[in-house]
Protein 1
Amino acid sequence: MEMRLSKRMAELGLCSRREADEWISRGWVFVDGTRVDVLGTKVSEGQKVSIDDRARSAQKERVTILLHKPIGYVSAQAEDGHQPAVKLFVAENRFHADHSTTRFSPAQKVGLAPAGRLDIDSTGLLVLTQDGRIARLLIGADSPVDKEYLVRIEGTPDARALALLRHGLSLDGEPLRPAGVDQLEPGQLRFVLREGKKRQIRRMCEAVGLRVVALKRVRIGGVKLGPLPPGKWRYLLPGERFVRG
């Protein structure tokens, strides 16, 4: 079965499809040892795909940012007068305890996009990246990365409500994947999800008679929010991995 070369490159984890098209146009992609520079080229799964060292160098220069998004900012494009979270990516907002040796440059804003969403009235860890591999890892339909949230609620869930939150609810006509849901103390729940439908946790709670009053994402895979203050950001460190193990 044949497919577009850019799609095959994304499946192999080499880059995003957008990056693949860019590299193909620059002549940085080889199929079975032959340079390919025509967009839309089809390949089969049995063919070997490799990339030029220049593509690897360009990829290494791409940055990934961990931001503690405050309430009032949207994850992506500006809407209803609210600013996108990327506006917080300025030198003066860099976390003073960032241990990365990467130097800030305004050029790092080019192509920097959120890998996932966090509602305007939610806080916590938001990933912004120039690296298509990370974006696909975090938001792809088959993403293996879970996300952990601390949720303040009004109401007291009984055993049935907790069971439904863990598995048994549907949103937008589709059943939700099993979730990890635990009551940490009266008025506080911990959710661990492997999907991210719009306002999912709030809608799940509403379905069982609970109201969310505060929501904070504290972990994405193996990367934790930690002591990062609201409105501050830091670079992802070389040893940090979203996929654990």
Note: The mean pLDDT is 91.
Protein 2
Amino acid sequence: MFEFESSIVEFQGTFRNYALFIPADILSKLPQKGRVRMEGTMNNYPFNLAIQSGKEAGKFFSISAPFMKSAKLKPRQVVIVNCKIADPEKLEVPEEFSAALELDEIAAKTYHSFTTGMKRSILHYITSAKSSDTRIKRALELMEKFKYDPNYLKYRK
């Protein structure tokens, strides 16, 4: 388990978001090759994020505006981070999507053929909806696309 303090900074990446830079002493204890996902809390708010690398910026967690709002974080705020290396294959499948997968064997087979990263993107799209009705709607729309849209097939393993 790792614990450190760091300040949130505004960061101009591909999208406007925020960054929480990881101290060098913590980075030195982490794997140096490949993408590393961490899970834990920021000021007691749970997260599961991959460590990002900036060309000249160093290594950081990219934090979205919705995450900032949910965690009640502000730019320049000092944050206490408690984290550990996450299982890169572990995915939290929301109930609405799990039920949809059980109802459609063909679409489920397509979903299970995707890479973990693609699955994580799909799950984020579903869980980012605030209401259960919207999550259900998104899950069902995706099931149809998995069956009939050949563009989804390019994301398979």
Note: The chain has two domains: 2-85, 95-155.
Protein 3
Amino acid sequence: MLWLAAALTAKRATRSRLRHFAGLRIALFVILVLVAHSGAFKGLHTLESNPTLQGIGTALFLTGLGLALWARVYLGRNWGTPMSEKVDAELVVTGPYRYVRNPIYSGLILAALGTAVAVSWYWLVAVVFVGAYFIYSATVEERIMERLFPNDYPAYKRSTKMLIPYVF
């Protein structure tokens, strides 16, 4: 609810590259949820009986969710759907953006990984697809940022990693 409420105060987008794919994104999400809840993976290897992995997975999930929310707060009114451009955009380099350029994506991938560890290794399929989508989105967004902030963004890009601090 916090995320949706904050979205109402976001700056207006001048252009969004995803408006043509909105239906496809929603359809893929609905299919993923339906498959997950259909019992299609029932009887396959789950981790229900391993409290250690459930604890680790839950910790990863909560850490990822916390990172995404922390980043969302720092982004403020500059937040938008992936690959969108905002009116009067500002380059945010504080908070979690001090460590990675896309901490919302990092947090959501970490939360999905935590779900895989806590629930079922089959969720790693979703982690791979979500990760690929976020890497693609981040790459497109970086081209936009380089155009919007030609003096500041190159140095920021050199000083931080895309998703994982000090690694990638």
Note: Residues 47-168 form a domain with the Four Helix Bundle (Hemerythrin (Met), subunit A) fold (CATH 1.20.120.1630).
